Amino acid sequence: MKQIKNICCIGAGYVGGPTMAVIAKNNPHITVTIVDINADRIAAWNDKDLTKLPIYEPGLADIVKETRNKNLFFSTDINKAIDQSEMIFMSVNTPTKTYGKGKGMAADLKYIELCARTIADVATTDKIVVEKSTLPVRTAEAIKSILHNTGNHINFHILSNPEFLAEGTAIKDLLNPDRVLIGGESEEAIESLAKIYESWVPKNQIIRTNLWSSELSKLTANAFLAQRISSINAISELCELTGANVNEVSKAIGMDSRIGSKFLKASVGFGGSCFQKDILNLVYIARSYHLNEVADYWEQVIIMNDHQKRRFSDRLIKTLYNTVSGKKIALLGWAFKKDTNDTRESAAIYVTDHLLSEQATVSVYDPKVSSEKMQSDLNYLNTRTEDENFNLVQTVSNPYDAVKNAHAVAIMTEWDEFITYDWEIIYKSMKKPAFIFDGRNILEKSKMEAIGFEYHAIGQ
Ligand code: NAD
Ligand code: UGA
């Protein structure tokens, strides 16, 4: 088995950064270099002030402090890091295509292909190339073809090693993974990677499969997780009309050990960079094999999620006497979930866009998301001009400013601090009747009603 002494990771993002930090922490004998084309991102990773790291994840700054410039390095010198490493992780983004064939559905593999081509150009010694990004099943075939046709007679082994961490709990998930999955064709290459994980993951939790099972397992895991959320969200709509309470239904079904209790929290709709993109990709792959029933089945998870987001803002507007025109609506939370500054596909973006189209003015507070990010998320939708978004959306750094004179508060993210606010003060500062739309079911209905709020939660 090949002893790995130098690792390069291409892509210093939400996956590359935390994953490599944890590998470096547990393998002090290995030098890990994370490279990226984004010089600002690399500079932020190298910032002495650890609060300026480009990613907020509980526990991450401590590990970076412990390992950075000892055996963990951040650099823009991609070629050098590739050349010096025996193992290269590709951890670049694989967003949904926004152009050409497969637009809006397929994964855009241009970044991954560029990585493969750079590795092929630069490498002068044998390499193990690891797919860390989430990729369509059979991508390794294309990567293999690029690497093996460069004519420089170097041996490349390709492994698939998808990442299952969730944002907000990335470090916890990396330190205690349910499993590590390695797919490959070369046993020696597989064992080289397994050895790295064995320094902190129990051996029986490191599983080996063929390349295609590994690639497909990642898409399938995300599809199953998202499907559970859409399933309970579908039931939440029925609850609202029948007097059933979705929290009680979740608890009742989740205690069946065959169903399990996780990922049954009804919400305003799932967000994040991956669930939607990976399911769309799965749907696209199924359709490309003419498996229309399979494609339709999984597509319904996305249709349900879009419906849930829209339903939330429709209900808010309907409850506010069918108009929000000229009314101030306060949004608490912009991140797609708590404990992260990531806003990709966050339900808050779509709810705000809908409210703005109904001529509401929106005031937003999020403990970790900057106002620039909120504005750029809205501008990206292209629904109105940047100036209009800027004038209609007020972003504030104090939650009590957000709610002042608002007709309604909409809770979009389940940040713990929202529960501890002084809701009596909030009530006093709002227009009456004062409405709460709890998109995360984090507040207590009876408590809010006792204060005087008209409280609306999901599935209740
Ligand atoms: P990200 O956008 O945060 O980071 C990707 C980085 O790759 C960016 O900084 C970008 O500049 C860099 N990059 C792109 N092309 C490059 C190139 N040719 N050379 C050097 N750098 C390049 O993305 P992410 O959230 O870390 O996701 C990466 C992959 O991991 C995706 O496939 C995603 O589906 C998957 N994934 C993400 C998560 C998550 O929680 N975010 C979890 C599991 C898997
Ligand atoms: C998800 C998966 O959980 C990870 O295993 C996977 O590695 C990752 O996608 C990925 O491939 O990117 P992440 O998107 O970071 O992780 O966060 P989740 O905790 O899965 O939450 C996703 C969305 O679903 C959030 O908006 C969250 O609020 C929502 N959610 C989650 C619910 O609405 N209800 C739930 O019960 C759970």
From TrEMBL:
The keyword Secreted does not apply. Residues 330-445 form the UDP-glucose/GDP-mannose dehydrogenase C-terminal domain. Its EC number is 1.1.1.22. InterPro entries: 6-PGluconate_DH-like_C_sf, NAD(P)-bd_dom_sf, UDP-Glc/GDP-Man, UDP-Glc/GDP-Man_DH_C, UDP-Glc/GDP-Man_DH_C_sf, UDP-Glc/GDP-Man_DH_dimer, UDP-Glc/GDP-Man_DH_N, UDPglc_DH_euk. It comes from the Bacteria. Coiled coil: none annotated. Keywords: NAD, Oxidoreductase. Pathway: Nucleotide-sugar biosynthesis; UDP-alpha-D-glucuronate biosynthesis; UDP-alpha-D-glucuronate from UDP-alpha-D-glucose: step 1/1. It catalyses: UDP-alpha-D-glucose + 2 NAD(+) + H2O = UDP-alpha-D-glucuronate + 2 NADH + 3 H(+). SMART domains: UDPG_MGDP_dh_C. PANTHER family: UDP-GLUCOSE 6-DEHYDROGENASE, UDP-GLUCOSE DEHYDROGENASE/UDP-MANNAC DEHYDROGENASE. Belongs to the UDP-glucose/GDP-mannose dehydrogenase family. This is UDP-glucose 6-dehydrogenase.
